[in-house]
Every structure is written in C-alpha cells, then in structure tokens.
Amino acid sequence: MIAEFGSFALVLGLAFAAAQFVLSAAARLRRSTVLAAAGEGAAVAAFAGVAIAFACLIHAFVTSDFSVANVAANSHTQKPLLYKVAGTWGSHEGSILLWCLILTGYGAAAATLGRGLPRGLKASMVATQGALGTVFLAYTVFASNPLARLPLDRIPVEGNSLNPLLQDPALAIHPPFLYSGYVGMSVVFSLAVAALIEGRVDAAWARWVRPWALAAWSLLTVGITLGAFWAYYELGWGGWWFWDPVENASFMPWLMATALLHSAIVTEKRGALAGWSLFLAIGAFTFSMLGAFLVRSGVLTSVHAFAVDPKRGVLLLIILGVTAGSAFTLFAWRAPKLSRGGVFAPISRESALVLNNILLAAATMTVMLGTLYPLIREAMTGEAISVGPPYFNLTFAPLMACLGLVLPAGPLLAWKRGDLAGVAQRLWAAALIALACGVGAYALVSPRKAFGALGIALGAWLVAGALTELAERTRAFRVSAGDSWRRLTGLPRGAWGMTLAHLGLGVFVLGACCELGWRGEAAEALPLGGSLDVAGYHLTLETVGPREGKNFDAERALIRVTKAGREICTGEPDRRFYPAGGQTISGIALCYRGASHLYMVLGERRTTAPDSSGRGGMPVWLIRAYWNPWASLIFLGPVIMALGGIASLSDRRMRLGVGRRREAQAAPATPDAPPPTPLRPGQEQTA
C-alpha cells in the first residue's frame, strides 16, 4: 500500500504543479493577489506531494520491496543500508523523481522567498516554474513511474544489485549535489522568462538572479568534484577527468552559470549586458536539460549513463526542444526591445567581465561541439568516431589559459573607466612570483616540460593575483598592521567569496598541471615477493589473501612501499566480485605523500606458463602503480571555490537584495545602481 500511496502523492504533485502554472498565469493576467497566493500555495503543495512519493520510494528500497519494479531491478537484500538508500536515485526512474523533487523544492522556495519581487514578475516566475514542474512530473508519472508494481507472477525472490561501481560513499551523495546544481538553474531560467514577459530588466532583477545562480553554481561545483573524485579512486584507471560526454554534460551548465554570475554583476552595477544575462540564464538550464537527455536517452555508452528505452529519450528530447525553444523564441522577440544600459570604456571592469564572458561562452561551445559532434555524425552517417582529450587540450585549454591571464586584473579595474597602468603596477609582484614558479619548475623538476612549467606559472599567477586583490582591499603594507587587520575583518563576505573562488581556481590549475605534466606510471605482473619501481618508489607485493565484504568477495593484496631503503607506507588494493550482479571491479589503494599520491591497483590473477624444465605455473597478479604529484590540489581547489560561493551567498547585501520590495520596484539611479532598462519609447509596455 505504501507504493500505491506514493504513486497517488506523485499524481497529486503533478496536479498541484499544473495548478501552480494555471493560477499564477491567471494572477499575472488579472493582477490578482488572491490567485497569486493560491499559485504560491500550490507550489508548496506540489513539493510536498513529490517529497511524499520520494519518501515512499526510499521505504521500498530500504525494506527490499521487490514487488516494485524499480527496486527489483536496482536493489538486493545483501546491499548495505547506505547503498539501498542511494539506489533510490541510482536508476533512470529514481533519478528523474529526484530531479522532480529538487525542481518542485526550488519552485516552493522561490514562491515562498520571493516577497521582494514585483507582483507581475513574481507571478510570471512562479507560473514558469510550475510549467517546468508540470512537464517533468507528467513525464515521470506517465513514462517513468518509479513506484510501478510488477505483476504478481513476476515478483522475484531476490533483486538485481545496483552497479558495483556506483556502490561508493562519494557517488551516493554525488547525484543529490549534482542535481541540486543542475535543477537550481531552473529558477534562473524562470526569472529570465518572467523578465522577458514583463519587458524590463533592472538592477533588482540582477540582484534576484545572483543568489539563485550562486547557490546552483556552488552545489554543481561540489557535485562535479565528487564525481571526479569518485572516478579517480573507484574506476582504477588513475585519472580524474576523461572528457566523457556525461562529464561534459555537467560541465557545460557550470561554465554557463559561471559566465552568468559575472554578467549579472555588470547588469546590477551598470545596467549593461541585460540581454546577454537573460540569454545566459536561459542557456544554463537548457544545458542542464541537455545533460538529462544525454544521460537517459541511450545515445551514450558510459558508466555514468542510464541504459533506458530510447522512446523515453525521445520524450526528453521533445521536452528539451519545447521548453528551450519556447524560451529562446521569447528571447528573440523581446530581448531586442530592451535598452542597452550603461556605457563603459574599453579598459574598465565591465570590459574585463565582457571578455570573461566571451571566453567562457567560447569554451562552452567548444565542449558542446566535442560532445555532440560524434553523436550527430553517427546518427547521420552510421560512422562511430570519438573525440577525446587531444581535441579538448588543443581547443578548450588555450581559452582557459587566456581567461586565467586576464582574471587577476578584473577586480582591480575601476567601473566605467579603468587604469591599466595602475593595475599593472599593483600586479607586478604577482607576475614576478608566477615567473619565478614557472622558471623554477622548468629548471628544477625532472623531466623538463615546458607546458607543465607554463601551467605552474599560470596557477601561481591566479593564486598571487587573488591574494594581491585581497591586499589591495586591506591596504596591506601601506597602513599600520592594526588598520589592515580591521579592514580585513570588516570585508564583506561577498569580497571574501570572490577571492576564494579565484584562489580555488588557481589551486586547481596548480594541481591539474603538475599531475598531468609529471605523472609517472608502471605496470607489471608480479608473483609474491615481486617488485616494481615508479617515480623513485619501490613497491613489493607481500601477500594476497581473501577478504569478505557485506555483499562481495575479494582478493586483497598487501603492497609495501619503500624509498631509498626506508619504508614509506603500505597499500591494500583489492579485486572485488559481486555475486548478485556477477561483476568484478578493482579497488585501489592510495599512499599520501603530502599533496601527492602513490596510486596502486590490483589487477587480474593468472598463472605463468611452465618453462622448458617443466617448472613454473606460479600465480602472478597484474600490479599497476601511478605517481600523481599534487593530485590533492585538484580536489581542494574546487572545494575552495564552492566555499567562496557559499561565503558570497551568506553576504547580508545579497540577502537584502532579494528581500526588499522597495529596491525591486525602483532601483536608485546612481552609478552603482542604475535605473531599470525598460522598453524603448513607443514600444509595447507591460505592467
């Protein structure tokens, strides 16, 4: 009965989402506060209905109710409790329900927190969010019901286990963070559509967009980082990013959201780039929906992708086409009627942010081309091709390098008209530090690698530039230490957030360039007592023995690591067999050496062939080892970036920008808060 109750709650959620759309649209047309309040209440009710359905699905997984088709296909009684819960969103149907839960949750939050918005804008936003909820909930109810029952004669005694690669703590929490970022773009999308309907984009609109975009961007950063870390230590290939199409599907909305965060600042401060900010807001969620299609359509073969009926992929493609197509059609009709806003000089903070957006947009298009071109070509010609790291290294990396070069200068430029010579004077120390790091890396680190040294210089430039910007804010070394400390402790959290985000990017670049440039690896089939060397470390295979897990059997090796005769650490990689699914995977071992990692993988066991004397036939195991220098910085950098986003989101000015109706209705006409950008005289106006 609980599954049926969940299905009923899901249908109720669909009905309330439809009511949210209809009531809010009617409230906008009739300017009715009563209908608007009813639409907002329906948004909360839609979220409650989906939350109940999601709780019922979790109950079915935890209790191993194999009469539910989704549970029978993706769970097993021997699975640990954590992975039973994670199995709720480990399938196509469950992940779509999680998508709907987060979508309606954002809709309820936007309806509840949007008291500072003009009535017309808020009603249009809630209606758009309701339309999105209706579309995705209808798809869930009619095409992907996660609570559907199996016929009585087909209920199994035991279910199929979730893919063993997905049974990992990092991946258990990876989808909720990723979807919270993905779907968080829906509020930004709805605000953009509402602004186009209302025909005005002003500083108050930009202040409202920024918190939602920032929250989604921060959550998406965490989600992508968790996915990269899972790929690093779970897949056993020694890497953390492969430009897999599904990885790209999460990366493209992140790039668009990053561009939007910078563009919205210009719209808020100077009233410029209003149309471009709207375009980015629509595009960010469009790429999120594209990711949902790529993962669930069956067009991709990936460990990240769900193998589903292609017919449901076609439905998702229709949803993507109708939703994004309608929004971009509205944009093409209404955006040209928006005034251009403030004017600024070629050398100014606005220009730096425009250049930032151009590079991020070009990078997004590069990733999109590399992701979709193989699919389009295969569909048209039947010829399968792959686009891998070499393409992205030649196209995406130079764009990001250019962005890194100009990034530290942006915060030091003045609004409207900047002083490039003055910025250069303030960044000379950062430039010297970057140059010294690059030259030192090339001269001292063996083997000498020019591109690796350039990457080290770029990362040092970003880190030193972020610290220089912080020093400028506090006037460090120009006033007394006490005065600098007071300025430091008095900095708004938004300033800290920007510094942390730029600093985190520099930390990531340092780790990625060092790991890619000076990575070492070795592989050899070893008997017990055999050894191999990698990057100056001597690895000896001591023992291999059985190990029993809760739902798997394994062989576990003990590898002793020494350097110059001194024991450094021991690693215990294993090779696991999951009887429920009949799958075997390798578990890795990490030996931490500061920020660097010695990465060990236990491969297949085989028996050597006898020699001419008849001796031999001893067991050997394939041991692979990787030396990944500074690999910890790859994951630390995005964490610092996400903390920067959270710090900015907690800024009091950001919260006040969301909450004050007076500011939302009429922003003061000052250089820091320009007047709204309404339609030009003689053109259509909407209330």
Q: How would you explain this protein's 3D organization?
A:
The protein is of the alpha+beta class and 687 residues long. It is 61% helix and 11% strand. It is built from 21 helices and nine strands. It has helices spanning 2-30, 33-62, 69-74, 81-86, 92-113, 119-143, 169-198, 203-234, 245-270, 274-296, 310-334, 349-381, 389-406, 420-426, 428-444, 450-474, 481-489, 493-517, 631-649, 652-659, 661-665; strands spanning 520-526, 531-534, 537-548, 553-563, 566-571, 574-578, 583-593, 596-607, 619-628. Helix 7 packs antiparallel against helix 8. The radius of gyration is 27 Å and the shape is globular.
How do the helices and strands line up, and which of them pair or pack?
Layout: H1 2-30, H2 33-62, H3 69-74, H4 81-86, H5 92-113, H6 119-143, H7 169-198, H8 203-234, H9 245-270, H10 274-296, H11 310-334, H12 349-381, H13 389-406, H14 420-426, H15 428-444, H16 450-474, H17 481-489, H18 493-517, E1 520-526, E2 531-534, E3 537-548, E4 553-563, E5 566-571, E6 574-578, E7 583-593, E8 596-607, E9 619-628, H19 631-649, H20 652-659, H21 661-665
Short description:
This protein is α+β, with helices and mostly antiparallel strands. The chain has helices spanning 2-30, 33-62, 69-74, 81-86, 92-113, 119-143, 169-198, 203-234, 245-270, 274-296, 310-334, 349-381, 389-406, 420-426, 428-444, 450-474, 481-489, 493-517, 631-649, 652-659, 661-665; strands at 520-526, 531-534, 537-548, 553-563, 566-571, 574-578, 583-593, 596-607, 619-628.
